[in-house]
UniProtKB/TrEMBL annotation:
Oxidoreductase among keywords: yes
Listed GO biological process terms: steroid metabolic process
Family as reported in the entry's similarity comment: Belongs to the short-chain dehydrogenases/reductases (SDR) family.
Protein name (record): Retinol dehydrogenase 3
Gene source species: Salmo salar
Example GO molecular function: oxidoreductase activity
Domain of life per record: Eukaryota
PANTHER family xref list: DEHYDROGENASE_REDUCTASE (SDR FAMILY) MEMBER 9 (PTHR43313:SF52), SHORT-CHAIN DEHYDROGENASE/REDUCTASE FAMILY 9C (PTHR43313)
Keywords, alphabetical: Oxidoreductase
């Protein structure tokens, strides 16, 4: 009986692999709109899809990002300035895209832009800290998607949302996990709403990869900035050596998990865009597949114990 189960599981994986080989036709006629193309996943995806023959619309936050991307791309690739938290900027980009794609519509939007700081214990944060990250990571995703959704419905295309494995499990405090849980919820509701229109809505849940948002210097600076703004009472509660211990934890947990092969994520993005039968969810990264996702299915008390084991803990006291 056990062998039959193994055989069925193996057959299912082979069947899925074979089914996922098929790609959509006429790539040269399909426009793909990608946010956050200055660096990291977005930049690599724009260049990769351009080489595959797609018509790429790469949204960058800076002129430097636009200029450098144009230098290494074909004439098919168009760039556009985009600040996802600015309604005016989003609308200007949408107007440009409408003119560009015409009656063909937009094949795909990839919501890749995002930020990772401020992050830290929840009681270090203010409401404005939460708002600033939610504006980029969640409201930005919703705003960009809704702005081009009529064009995607016209093409019966794709919406690809970059969430995180931390949209499944909260491994640390602050607004990052909150924003990514929100992306997951938006993705799931949109997927159900759009199924009747032939629009596929896909989600990526990467683990730790070596990009600008996981840069250790940025994360250390984030800890220092937050700590410097705390009251003496809160500092006493955590212990005045807490920032040093938190940085040791960063080195131990983040640096050791970082994966430098960004193409693992880009390949999943490309599959979500170009496969005839894409997956509903992708989990690039060994830590996502074998650590964080399995942990998210454990009973809460077990998962909490595993997470707390490696965290920097307060050593002060409540007055």
């Amino acid at each position: 009986m056990f062998l039959y189960i193994i055989g069925l599981v193996a057959f299912w994986f082979v069947l899925r692999w074979y089914r996922e080989l098929a790609r959509v036709p006429n790539k040269g006629e399909k426009y793909v709109y990608i946010t956050g193309c200055d660096s990291g996943f977005g930049n690599l995806l724009a260049r990769h899809l351009d080489k595959l023959g797609f018509c790429v619309i790469a949204a960058c936050y800076t002129e430097k990002g636009e200029d450098e991307l144009k230098k290494v791309s074909s004439e098919r690739l168009n760039t556009v300035h985009l600040d996802v938290i600015s309604t005016d900027s989003v609308n200007k980009a949408t107007a440009f895209i409408k003119t560009l794609v015409g009656e063909k519509g937009l094949w795909a939007v990839v919501n890749n832009a995002g930020v990772s700081v401020p992050s830290g214990p929840c009681d270090w944060m203010t409401v404005d800290d939460y708002k600033s990250m939610l504006d980029v990571n969640l409201i930005g995703v919703i705003g960009v998607t809704l702005s081009v959704l009529p064009l995607i419905k016209k093409a019966r295309g794709r919406v690809v949302n970059v969430a995180s494995v931390f949209g499944r499990i909260s491994a640390f405090g602050g607004p990052y996990c909150v924003s990514k849980y929100g992306v997951e919820a938006f993705n799931d509701s949109l997927r159900m709403n759009m199924s009747a229109f032939g629009v596929k809505v896909l989600c990526l849940e990467p683990g730790f990869f070596k990009t600008s948002v996981t840069d250790l210097n940025l994360l250390r600076k984030n800890v220092k900035t937050l700590w410097d703004n705390l009251s003496e009472e809160v500092k006493d509660q955590y212990g005045h050596d807490y920032p040093e211990r938190a940085n040791v934890t960063l080195e131990k947990n983040v640096a050791t998990l970082l994966d430098g092969d960004l193409m693992k994520v880009v390949s999943c993005m490309e599959h979500a865009i170009s496969a005839l039968h894409p997956r509903t969810r992708y989990s690039p990264g060994w830590d996502a597949k074998f650590l964080w996702l399995p942990m998210s299915y454990l009973p809460t008390w077990i998962a909490d114990k595993m997470l707390l084991k490696d965290m920097a803990k307060p050593t002060g006291s409540i007055r």
